[in-house]
Amino acid sequence: MKIAVVTGAAGLVGTEAVRFFRERFDLVIGLDNGMRGALFGEGGDVSGNVAEMSFIPNYRHHDVDIRDYSLVAQVLATYGTDVELIVHTAGQPSHDWATERTLDDFWINAVGTLNMLEGARRHCPDATFVVTSTNKVYGDKPNTLPLVELDTRWDIHPDHPYHHSGIDESMELDNTDRTFFGVSKLSADLAAQEYGRHLGMKVGVFRCSNITGPRHAGVPLHGFLSHLVRTAVAGNEYTILGHGGKQVRDNIDARDLVRMFWHYHLEPRPGAVYHAGGGRERSTSILEAIARCEQLTGRPMAVRYEPHARFTDAKCWITDTRKFRRHYPGWEPRHGLDDTLASMHAHWSSFAAAPASAAPTSTEIEQERV
Ligand SMILES: NC(=O)c1ccc[n+]([C@@H]2O[C@H](COP(=O)([O-])OP(=O)(O)OC[C@H]3O[C@@H](n4cnc5c(N)ncnc54)[C@H](O)[C@@H]3O)[C@@H](O)[C@H]2O)c1
C-alpha cells in the first residue's frame, strides 16, 4: 500500500496537500490537533477543514500533537515502510505569538519537526520528507538590500540583480535580527538538512514566502491576504502596521506549493533547500492588495494605520524559484494572484452568507493536476 502522511492536515497547506495526494496514494494520513484554533481563537478554527476531509474515503485523521514523540512514533510505526511521503506542515506560524509564548513556539516548530524527522528515520526511512520552512529564517536581512520607495510599494533597486530574479537561497543567515519564530523555524530547517545531508534521508526544505489560498483561516497575526480578504468581505476595519503599507510579499497559492512537493517527491534530492514563492508577478504590497479587495467587494475598505512596523518585518520580499525550476523543470505556478484572490473572495463571501454550512464538500473541491 502507498501511503502519504500530512502533518498540519487541517491547515492551509495541509488541507490542499491531502486533497492533492488522495488521488496519488492509496491512503492519506493526516496529523493535526486543531492547535490553530487554540493559537488564534475562533478565527483560526480549522475544524471545518477536518469535517470537510472526513468525506474523503481514503483519508484518515489522527488528532496527534507533534510535540509528543511517543504519539508521532506510534502513528509512523503503525504505517511503517508503506509511508512513501511525509509532508510536514504542522506549525505555529506567528512571530507575535512566538514572542509571547517562546517555549511553546520552540516545542511546536523545532522539537515537533525533530520528532517527525526522528520518527521517520526509525519507522519509514525511505520516505520522502518535505519540510515547510520560511523566508523568515533570514530575519530582517532583506531590509539591508538597496530599496526604493515607489507610490504604492517598496521595491528592490532596479540595479540589483534581485530586482529581476527575486531573492535566492544564497542570502546570508547570520548577522540579522530574526524573531523567536524565525529561530524555531531555522532550527527545524537546519535539523531537516542534517537528516538529508548527513543521514541521506530524502528530506527537502522549502523556504516559503507568503502562502495563500481559499482555505486559509486568516487571522490578524497570520495569513495576511486571507485576513485582508476576510476583513474586506465582512466590512470590518483593517489595520496596517508600518512601512506606509507599502511592504511587499510575493504569494504562492498553496495548490502550486503542493505541486512543488510532488515534483520533489518524484525525484528527491537529500538535504536540498529551495525557495518557494510566486515571484514578482504574484507580488503585492498591502496598499495594492487593499485596492484589489475594494475592486472585488465593490466598496471602499476602512483602514487604520499604525506607524510601528512589526519587528524585522521585511519591506520587500520577492522569491527567486529558479533553483527549484532548474532541478524540476516540469513545475511552474498555475494560479495567478487575481485568480487566488477571487477564490478567497468567493470562499469568504459564502461563509458570510451561511457561516455554519458554507464549507464546500469534498465532491465540490477542485482537483489539482500535476
Ligand atoms: N502561510 C504562510 O504564509 C507560510 C509562509 C511560510 C512558511 N509557512 C509554513 O508552512 C507551514 C504551513 O503553514 P499554514 O499556513 O498551512 O499554517 P496553518 O496554521 O494553516 O496550518 C498549520 C496546522 O498545524 C496544526 N498544528 C499546530 N500545532 C500543532 C501540533 N503541535 N500538533 C499537530 N498539529 C499542529 C494547526 O492546527 C494547523 O491546522 C507552517 O509550518 C508555516 O510555518 C507558512
Account of the protein in words:
By secondary structure, this protein is an alpha/beta fold. The protein has a single domain, classed as 3-Layer(aba) Sandwich (Rossmann fold). 39% of the residues lie in helices and 19% in strands. It has 13 helices and 15 strands. The chain has helices at 12-21, 35-40, 47-53, 69-79, 95-100, 102-123, 161-165, 179-197, 224-234, 254-266, 286-297, 322-327, 337-353; strands at residues 3-7, 27-31, 59-62, 83-88, 128-134, 147-149, 154-156, 202-208, 210-212, 237-241, 248-253, 272-276, 283-285, 302-306, 316-317. The chain has a 7-stranded parallel sheet, sandwiched between helices. Strands 9, 11, 13 and 15 form a 4-stranded mixed sheet that branches. A two-stranded antiparallel sheet has the order 6-7. Helix 1 packs across helix 10 (254-266), helix 4 (69-79) packs parallel to helix 6 and helix 9 packs parallel to helix 11. It is globular. Residues 354-370 have low confidence and may be disordered. Bound molecules: nicotinamide-adenine-dinucleotide (NAD). Nicotinamide-adenine-dinucleotide is lined by residues 8, 10-14, 31-36, 46, 65-67, 89-93, 108, 112, 132, 134, 208, 210-211.
Can you give keywords for this protein?
alpha/beta, 13 helices, 370 residues, single chain, binds nicotinamide-adenine-dinucleotide, 4-stranded mixed sheet, globular, disordered C terminus, 39% helix, 7-stranded parallel sheet, Rossmann fold
Q: Which kinds of small molecule does this entry bind, naming each only once?
A: nicotinamide-adenine-dinucleotide
The 3D shape can be described as globular
Write the CATH architecture name: 3-Layer(aba) Sandwich
Helix content: 25-40%
Cα-atom radius of gyration: 19 Å
Strand order of the largest sheet: 3-2-1-4-5-8-12
Largest sheet: 7 strands, parallel
Q: How many β-strands, per DSSP?
A: 15
Average of per-residue pLDDT values: 92
Calculate the terminal CA-CA distance, rounded to whole Å: 21 Å
User: What is the assigned CATH homologous superfamily?
Assistant: NAD(P)-binding Rossmann-like Domain
